[in-house]
Amino acid sequence: MPTASGKRATLAMVADAAGVSLATVSKVLNGRSDVAADTRVRVENVLREFGYVPQNGRRTVASRRLADIVFDDLVSPYALEVLRGVTDAGTELGVDVVIGRMPEAGAEPSGPLSPEDAWAQRIKSGDREGLIVVTSELTLAQVESFARAGLPLVVIDPLNLPRVEVTSVGATNFSGGITATEHLLGLGHRRVAFAGGPVGASCSQARLHGYRAALENAGATADPALVLHGGFGYQDGLEMGNRLLARENRPTAIFAASDATALGVLEAARRRGLRVPEDLSVVGFDDTMLARLATPALTVIRQPLHDMGRVALRTLLKLIAGETLDSHHVELATHLVVRDSTGPVPDHSRQGA
């Protein structure tokens, strides 16, 4: 907007209104990356409010910034919740988010660059300032290629961390595993099974460790035959559910490592004529829309997927600006949401602790 005197706004006026230096305003106008995200947004808002036009009449507020978000699976409700968090933060912070897929493993070089370096250079040449990788398995070669290209990296719920210094955002998976299992133990269940994700996935391993810790703390026997690993999908849950429920001494409760896995377990129970929760209790992990739409509605450990996405983008912008992070690994709190898929252990299955 024009100033009160009708004079054209100057850089000094913008700097004073935004509470920053002239140099910072200049950096924002030139699209420099070494400005904190919150400061950049504040300066851009003042520039727009004042209707600032540089004296050459050509340069205006720098075009919106770009960041990549890369998924292994784009169709899951989990991915959609994380993406919503990242894009909401992008809208607030003036960052456009470009969605991509993980490249195929084992790709052959198509030129002088390795597949890893070629991927990093494609991202860099598209003016992306950094990238977020969601629930995917990264290789050390990929991480090193991003570093060579000068691309800051943040991973969400990583399946692995090739380097301990790779910045990650996740949830309190160990605590969530304890809480889920303690909920089932509190309902009288002692034969509690775990339908986990990939055996090498760090988030699934943390949930498994929490499950085992809760059983041990309660003095309940941890039966190795009741621990299975698969993927995080519906079909994986169906297969693991079939195997667990086909046992002669089947579990009375199953803790599934994702909502989609839990839905597969529900279907396995339905096919055997088992009622949930009267004959079998089931707990999921995530609290996506699948949990609320399931029949019966799923009791879950809720991880704040939307907030994880928001924190990941804000963290990425701090890395881009060269800021020092308080911690390279951030875990957001999980909590239990009780719905209709859990209930007391069936009378005929009651056992001593």
Automatic annotation (TrEMBL):
Keyword Transcription: yes
GO molecular function: DNA-binding transcription factor activity; transcription cis-regulatory region binding
Domain named HTH lacI-type: residues: 9-63
Coiled-coil region list: none
InterPro entries on file: HTH_LacI, LacI/GalR-like_sensor, Lambda_DNA-bd_dom_sf, Peripla_BP_I
Keywords in alphabetical order: DNA-binding, Transcription, Transcription regulation
Transcription regulation listed as a keyword: yes
PANTHER family: LACI-RELATED TRANSCRIPTIONAL REPRESSOR (PTHR30146), LACTOSE OPERON REPRESSOR (PTHR30146:SF153)
Name assigned to this protein: LacI family transcriptional regulator
CDD domains per record: HTH_LacI, PBP1_CatR-like
Pfam family, one: Peripla_BP_3
Domain of life: Bacteria
